[in-house]
Structure formats: C-alpha cells, structure tokens
Amino acid sequence: MALVGVLLTGAACPSYAAPAAEPAWGVVDSTCAPDRLAAQRDAGLTVSVVEAYWDRLQPVPGAFDPGAVAELAARVGRCLDAGRRVVLGTGTQYPPSWVRALPDALLRDQRGAAPRTGGLDLVFAAAPRAALDDYLTRLVAAVPAARLTGIRVGTSAAGEIGYPGPQESGYGLNSWWAFGAPAQTGADLAPGQARTPLPGWVPGTAAWQGRAVTAADASRWFGWYSGALVTALAGQATVLRAAGFAGEVHLPTAGRGVLPADRSVAVGTLLDGHGDRDGSLGRGLDHVAAMPALAEAVPGAVVVDLTSVDDASAVRARALDPPEDLCTPEDAATSLDPTTRVERWSNLRFARAQAARAGLAVVGENPGPPGGTTGGVPDSDPEIEQVRRAPAYARACGLAAFTLAFEEDLHTPRSGVTPADYVGAITSSA
C-alpha cells in the first residue's frame, strides 16, 4: 500500500481541513542556469522541476548517450547544489524513433488510427513497456537519485496520467485508445495488464457477440480501460523502486476527470459520447476511482501533481454567482454527494477533493500560456493572470508546493512576466 509521503515541505501530509501553512514555490522546466538560480533564490523559490528527454538520452537501444547523461547530471547537480529541491520529469513524452518502431508501439483507437502526436502505448503493449522499463532503470543510475525529492511518471504525450485527449484523435470526443492488438487479443500484453473484457466491442454499439450490451457491461469496460492506467503507473513506480529510487513518485494529473453523474450517464448510454463534457472519458480519467486505487497500487511515497491551477475551468467557476473556484475544507466530504453541483467547480477544486479522499499528498502547477504547445487553451487566463492568481489557489487548496509553468517565461522579456511578478503574487496572496 502506498502511504502518503513526505512532502516537499518536509512535513507530514496536512489534512485537507487544515491546509499547509505555506506552500513551497518553484518553477517547471528549470534549466538550472546559475543566473536564473540566483534570481529565483532572491525571489524565495526553492523547487525545480527538471525535465529529462528520452530521445536524447537513449537515441539507440541498449545504452545511454554519454554526452546527454553528462548534460542532465550537470543540470540536476547545479539545482541540487544551489539548495533546490528537484523533481525530475522522466521525459517519456519524448520517445526515440526506435521505440516508435517497436511492435504495437503506437496507441490505436476504435478506428485503427494512431494519435496525431504519435503517442506510445505505454499501457498495454509489452515491447514499448519493456523499453520504458529499461530507460527508467538507466535514468535512475544517470542522476543523483538519492538527492532528488521526486520523479514524475505518466502515460500521455504530455507526460501526465491518461490516454490521448480529443485534440489528438482527429475526431474530437469519443475516441477510445484500447484497440491495439495487445489490449484486444492479449498477445504481447504488458506485465500486469488484462485484455479487454469485451473483445472487439466498440463503445457506443448496442450488441456484442450476438447479445445486447448492458450498462453494467459498459461500466465494466470503462473500469478496465481507466484501471489499466493505474496498473501502468504502478508498474513504472515499481521499476523506479527496483532501480533504487526511494523518494516521492509524482503523478501529474490533468483536469477533474469524469464526474460521477456524468459517468452514470455515459455507461447508461453505452459510452456513445453522452456525459463526456471535456474528453475525460476517452482519456480514461476517473479521479474518483483512480486516486484511491493509486494510493493502494503505487509503492512508496506518492504525490499527486494537479496541473490545473487557474486553468480555464477556474475562469468559468469564479465568474459564477456565487463563485465556485476556491477549495473549501468540506469538499472532500461533499464532492460525491449527488446534491452538490460539482459541475460548477473548477477542475482543481474537484480533483483536490478526490486526492484528499484518497489521503494523497498534493502539489500543483498552472497550465501555462494559452496555446497549442501548453496546457492553456484560448479561454484560459493570460499567463500574467495565472501568475497573479495561482498562489492564492495553491494556498486555498492546501497544496504542499506550487511550481510555475514555465521557468523560461520568467526570464524572457517577450512573455511579459518577471520574477518580481511571481514574488508579488506570492506576497499579496498570503
């Protein structure tokens, strides 16, 4: 069983009803450049999320590139030597070309299409999973792992929990990413996974093998689909532990997942697209079920990283009367009450409540500037507004740490954001 770990603050996990006195503050995608570290130290920042890149570290199978290893180790070492607490992103969203060429490497939807981003099947397919296991084992050896605070694991092309989103399918909502041969036939299936409970059944169809499909069938299929993500993440964490990493395993988590009422609608209509407000169903994001399961399945200290701090849902939720964007101490208890209008809540608020229900430690980050290369969408706050608002959300939701996406934007004039803006937001929201 995975217990709530030691947080970035160094304290035991605060209860949701009694949030941490103060989050730790930091940045995402840190270069660990000396001048930036100095400026961030003066601003009171103490956490760096540092990204590794699978394609650079392992351009050919069976070995790491010495130059890339030296660069990563030096980058991590500079941050550590400057007193930063470092969370390492594994960079599995940047797979080498040879991994993409492995059998059953790419995810497939019910139409046989691969994601537009070329997302790997790190959930069901044995060959890319074996390559990933080898990579993670070598990665732990390549960095000063004993000095790291945490290592991130994920399954998506963004390095987060989940299957591809609607924008990656070419068909919008209602794409399902479990139609490769391993998931459908059980051949060359990744360790710990199970084949589909309804081989050949496509969500939204009313019959399977000569009989009517029931809501219970659809619920069982979706439970298998979303539960496979938990198994995959637990497998990555187990590899890290076997390689000798004893720190926190961080789980970057997008959005709020499917809401309970929407899940009921979805399975009642045989997953034909009803009840899917934001693509959570196709991405397999069921935080209500997954977070307790992750707490049980992932070995060692586990931290959920909510990547929705001041996302577009917060913009909408705070415009309501009354506003529904801020976490409250009662959320964990009321979030599953069918009379609670959780569809009005921000993503952060609902997901935070599920982490609290599961007893999981929580950190967070903002989506970044609106645009196709980040988590921001056109109706997100501009980045300067995210900087100004996110610290207040981090405090209200009892996050142990908040890391700003992205470091580069604090140190380039074209962004319109400066370290002083970040410091001002932290100070003014206290």
Automatic annotation (TrEMBL):
UniProt region (Disordered), positions on chain: 362-382
Keyword DNA-binding: no
Domain of life: Bacteria
Pfam families, per database record: Glyco_hydro_42
InterPro entries to which the protein is assigned, alphabetical: GH, Glyco_hydro_42_N
Glycoside hydrolase family 42 N-terminal domain span: 46-119
Signal keyword on record: yes
Signal sequence annotation: 1-17
Keyword annotations from UniProtKB, A to Z: Glycosidase, Hydrolase, Signal
Name of the protein described by the UniProt record: Glycoside hydrolase family 42 N-terminal domain-containing protein
Phylogenetic placement of the source organism: Bacteria, Bacillati, Actinomycetota, Actinomycetes, Pseudonocardiales
